[in-house]
UniProtKB/TrEMBL annotation:
Annotated segments matching region Disordered: 204-286
Keyword presence, Nucleus: yes
Name the UniProt record assigns to this protein: DNA-directed RNA polymerase I subunit rpa43
Organism: Wallemia ichthyophaga (strain EXF-994 / CBS 113033)
UniProt keyword annotations, A-Z: DNA-directed RNA polymerase, Nucleus, Transcription
């Protein structure tokens, strides 16, 4: 028997009653939604055909308004009796309501994929033979598992991850692997996932690990602040730059000019005049 639950986004998700809490769950959702479309003028006589063609162009692509990959749509209807033409644009803008089947995995959701490639840096998987998933090395327990590239797997274009003290295989090409969704990435209308196979993510979930990471970063920042506080205060005083106003700068320049003029006058007073020097010379000649 299959039941349904409603998530935070309003999606209706099928849930099996006999599933365990850590079992992989489905990311397929059915939703009643609407989109605003711009129908080309070529469909002026048959706008519904234009709306259907516009929706068909979005199939198997990530739609930001739905926050999911659109798989199919049915029961398409217009929400208004007439479209809206804005300014000089020939396109008719209208809201279309329909029922959609989408694929929308959530952060922390546990899923299952088939391994397509193993390398020392990451593991690549395919979910439902369609959607790409990458598991970076940082989300693999490298203390328990190691990468091996033997002759049997070298020709196939990838190695495998093995247990360090036994022959247990963690991941190899064609093998199913359970993972937890860490991040969702969208590029050119395609949705890709970043997964983790750490036991902490598979059992405890992703939120607890994020909290531990935040606490670690906060402790490091506290240490940095403590180190900065231990620095001598003179250095901090040197970094302070005083702000001078226009009046203060004017006063400073005037005082400097006065000082320069007074210094020049003193210098002139100290130096003897040319007439006095000539009079002395005449006395010596006599």
């Amino acid at each position: 028997m299959t039941d349904y639950r409603i998530d935070d986004d309003g999606w209706r998700i099928p849930v099996k009653t006999n599933d365990s809490p850590n079992a992989p769950s489905s990311a397929y959702k059915i939703v009643e939604t609407s989109l605003r479309l711009s129908i080309p003028p070529i469909f002026a006589n048959d706008p519904k055909s234009g709306a259907l063609e516009m929706l068909d162009s979005l199939v198997m692509r990530y739609v930001p308004a739905l926050r999911a990959v659109l798989l199919t749509h049915i029961n398409t209807q217009f929400k208004q009796s007439a479209g809206l033409i804005i300014d000089e644009s020939p396109f008719s803008v209208t809201d279309v309501q329909f029922t959609a089947l989408v694929w929308s995995p959530t952060i922390g959701q546990r899923m299952r994929g088939k391994v397509t490639l193993c390398s020392p840096d990451h593991i690549s998987l395919l979910v439902h033979h369609t959607f790409n998933v990458t598991i970076p090395r940082e989300f693999i327990d490298c203390q328990t598992f190691k990468y091996a590239n033997d002759s049997a797997t070298e020709n196939s274009g990838g190695g495998r991850w093995l247990h360090t003290s036994s022959t247990q295989v963690l991941a190899e090409q064609g093998r199913d692997v359970d993972f937890s969704v860490i991040e969702r990435n969208t590029t050119n209308g395609m949705l890709t996932l970043t997964g983790s196979i750490l036991n902490s993510h598979l059992k405890d979930g992703v939120k607890d690990t994020k909290k531990r990471r935040k606490s670690g970063t906060s402790s490091s920042t506290k240490d940095d602040q403590a180190n900065q506080s231990n620095e001598p205060k003179k250095a901090s005083k040197k970094q302070k730059i005083p702000i001078r106003t226009a009046n203060s700068s004017d006063e400073r320049t005037e005082s400097s000019s006065n000082e320069s003029s007074s210094s020049s006058s003193n210098d002139d007073a100290q130096q003897p005049s040319s007439a006095a020097v000539e009079a002395k010379k005449m006395k010596h000649k006599k």
